[in-house]
Amino acid sequence: MKHFPENLSAKLEIRKQHNALRKLPLLSKRIDFSSNDYLGLSQSEIIFKETHEFLIRNKITQNGATGSRLLSGNHKLYQETEDFIAEFHQSETALIFNSGYDANVGFFGSVPQKGDLILYDELCHASIRDGIQLSNAKAYKFNHNDFEDLEKLIIRNPNITIYIVTESIFSMDGDCPNLEELILVSNKHTCYLVVDEAHALGVFGAEGQGFVQMLSLQDHVFARIMTFGKGLGCHGAAILGSVELKDYLVNFARSFIYTTGLSPHSVATILVAYQFLEKNKKNIEVLRGNIIHFNQEKNMLGLKPLFVRSKSAIQSAIIPGNEKVKAIANQLQEKGFDVKAILSPTVPEGQERLRFCLHSYNSQEEITEVLRLLSTFVFMARG
Q1: Which of 94, 128, 303, 333 is the most buried (most CB within 10 A)?
Q2: Which is nearest to 231 in space by CA: 143, 168, 139?
Q3: pLDDT confidence of 26, banded at 50, 70, 90?
Q4: Which residues, in sequence order, are CB contacts of 377 under 8 Å at separation 6+?
Q5: Contact by Cβ (8 Å): 109, 296
Q6: How far apart, in Å, are the Cα atoms of 322 and each of 29, 45, 128, 329?
Q7: What are the distances in angstroms from CA 293 to CA 174, 196, 205?
Q8: Short-list 195, 253, 197, CA closest to 226
Q9: Which of 32-43 are b and which e, b meaning 16 or more Cβ less than 10 Å from the residue's Cβ?
């Protein structure tokens, strides 16, 4: 075997020196405060059995898609599932991608054109940024949820096509933008608004439709990206938009065109999970109760100043320094709670944090105890 390149070894060594080297974790039996399985649907035996029964009932025994959707992989379940998703989300169409990453890379790598401008929130996810890097359009970031800063950038770039990009729930902070205000800015300047709803699906809206629909703003958004690996508990993603947008993506989104489609089993799981979400609201109601309880408890324990303001399932306590935040995470893990430290460079230096993900299957007693322990460890560290 050839010697590993020295320049790559040097990059790994820098990560080690900054105590930021990533390693694949082993599955944990600790109490889950780290996964994105907000409603517990990835663990649902009902969805597992109904997916199997659906496939048997429809005599679908094929294991793989066999090719890209434009060649041999566009099995009949795709159309049925995309139609259901479009109706559920009150959208003209839906186009399924293999993952949220593929959806963002495919959209931003193909839709904005040379001469266009992309204005994106500075805290947008890495998949959005990677897609933007593939685009021939110019791109500038605006200060987080600062629409005065956004409007200044729009005014400086008159008479061109502008795409405004945000997330309805930000993955690291768990906060949300003022979408009504953002839409006013977008409409005023005839921009195209794109909203990533990855962490809102299953959490917001009467049936978990997402943050945009909860506010009845779907007709003002050019494209919504829905990711299924979080609140829906399975895999894949969909881009919601007009018929023209779907036709365009089928023809020009490289992450859609040049990849093997999802298996019939994967698409059936998406459909059954959506059907479950539509009919079963208990998980959503319990999750919302847990979010309220978490916020009440952190206030009572004097922890509010540590946390980014959030009413979502993502709650982040800012504890600067990779060493310090990892130490407190390790203490919580030793007590049986799976809480992860988010280190720089994943977040900016000085913004390292503990990221608590709340679920419908967390008990209120578990939430109270993990926050009590956090309070103890934080004040011990200060002492």
Answers
A1: 128
A2: 168
A3: confident
A4: 328, 331, 332
A5: no
A6: 24, 38, 25, 11
A7: 16, 27, 19
A8: 197
A9: bbbbbbbbbbbe
